[in-house]
Amino acid sequence: MVERGQRCKRVRIMPALAADMVVPLFAVGSSARVDADIAPKFKAGDTVTARNINPTGHTRLPRYLRGKSGTIEKDHGVFGLPDSMAHGGGETPQHVYCVRFSAREVWGASAAPRDSFYVDMWDDYLDPA
Amino acid sequence: MADHDHTEPPSDTALRVKALESLLLEKGLVEADTLDAIIQLYEHNVGPQNGAKVVARAWSDPDYKARLLADATPAIAELGYGGVQGEDMVVVENTSDVHNLLVCTLCSCYPWPVLGLPPVWYKAAPYRARAVSEPRAVLKEFGVEIREGVEVRVWDSTAELRYMVLPERPAGTEGLGEDELAALVTRDSMIGVALVEST
Fold it and tell me: Which of A89, B31, B127, B139 is such that its CA lies 20 to 30 A from the CA of B97?
């Protein structure tokens, strides 16, 4: 419903995808990688803590890992940040890392001692431990 | 009315999809033959048969396996697979010491070019929650007994990387060629909820 005095937002509609474009477009896809020379905040082997953030909007930081500490396994390179992109806020490009969390760090002493979770996280999700 | 000859109405989900589809078509936002082309693509051309060929190649060619584990996207492209939801791939290897399991706890992220579209249970809340809260119990329900001393690694693909499991090659398959090996590899084994059996 549009209230009196409120202006309708103009939504730009993309033209419908043509059937003959399905195979070529789907075969290429669209990587979220960003070609930008941005310094990483962390390197493999660093210990980090996932921030305990609770945004009302979009985030890819799973709740069960907020406040938990892990180790950077690998730097995947620079990607756009969904938290800002989902709300029209731009790419906010930054490094994404594979972070390992032990099952015991997440679930306590009842978890199997050597089991673990591997989750990819953006710089904005992490603090040094 | 039991004595009445009638057809059951479609499920709520099917009705909702039909309503959305007709709205999108009426408004000209999608075209019917485009939808058909997408369905055709994922019903016939893109599915776990692709991933099975990648696995069979990795089992047969140690150099390929090394490339696949080091940088999966170009190695998978060598076999002609890639694209939407597989732009940035990682392959994780099951060994006698490590068992890998894939999940997307936030939604349904899944490596389409090698596995096709995700099964319903993969997208359902119980699997997404329990794959991280009790992965060993989930594996047991799928019939996978994790051996003593084996480490379970759960890959929660909530970011932009997409994962595939390289299952262990079963014993007794030493003489098999790539096509025969590929025929043994199941979708579930590449998600990590099954092992590959030799027969």
Answer: B127
